Amino acid sequence: MLEMVGSLTASPWIYALVVLSVLLDVFLPVLPSGVLVITAAAAAAAAGAAVGGAGAAVAGAGTRVAPPGPDILLLLLCAATASVLGDLAAYRLARRGGPRLDRAIARSRRLTKAQERLGLALSRGGGALVVIARFAPAGRSVVSLGAGAARREIRKFLPWSALAGLAWAGYSVGLGYFGAQWLGATWLGTAVSLVALFAAGGLAAYLIRRPRRTPATS
Question: Which of 54, 117, 124, 148 is surrounded by the most beta carbons within 10 Å?
């Protein structure tokens, strides 16, 4: 993965790869979209540092140095947009899936429970569950498919999906970029960023599975 991304960081294809990976991992959660975004962001930080050093070296000659790495803001926009589009694709697929998909979801305890919790959260005007699930392993898939299968209103689901995509993209890009700046663009910086990403996923999974406490009645 690192070698492949490294060879693409100087090419616009890195954005297409990020979009494709983030877009499809709602259906294939095994895709390492978070790893890819972090690695690309780390490459952007490394490229920026390299350009700064090269620019200082050739300043006297008046030579212009072109940035060889991806643009960090465009990378953030691509990751967030692809996340929302993937959520919408899963939502629409489940909403139009028909009885066969409904039976398949009904056989899954995880999806059934997600439908119940998501429905309750959205009916109360809150969708923090959508944002939290974006960080959990396969949580995005469960929530998006559950919302579509339960025929939740798109106007209630979409804003939370957009917030979730922006939060996840910002967190992932920030980890890769600032991790590379603080720890250097080495395997150590990338490894620490990935540990932080997986830690957020574990915390999100715990928050989703944690049983809710019902207030005591007198």
Answer: 148
Burial-class residue 47 by CB neighbours within 10 Å (0-12, 13-18, 19+). Answer: buried
Task: Assign 3-class secondary structure to the chain.
Answer: CHHHHHHHCCCCHHHHHHHHHHHHCCCCCCCCHHHHHHHHHHHHHHHHHHHHHHHHHCCCCCCCCCCCCCCHHHHHHHHHHHHHHHHHHHHHHHHCCHHHHHHHHHCCHHHHHHHHHHHHHHHCCCCHHHHHHHHCCCHHHHHHHHHHHCCCCHHHHHHHHHHHHHHHHHHHHHHHHHHHHHHCCCHHHHHHHHHHHHHHHHHHHHHHHCCCCCCCCC
Residue given tokens 């990378």 in the structure block? 75
Question: In degrees to the nearest 10, what's the CA dihedral of 122, 78, 38, 182?
Answer: -100
What's the pLDDT at 54?
A: 47
For residue 28 the two structure tokens come to 């294939």
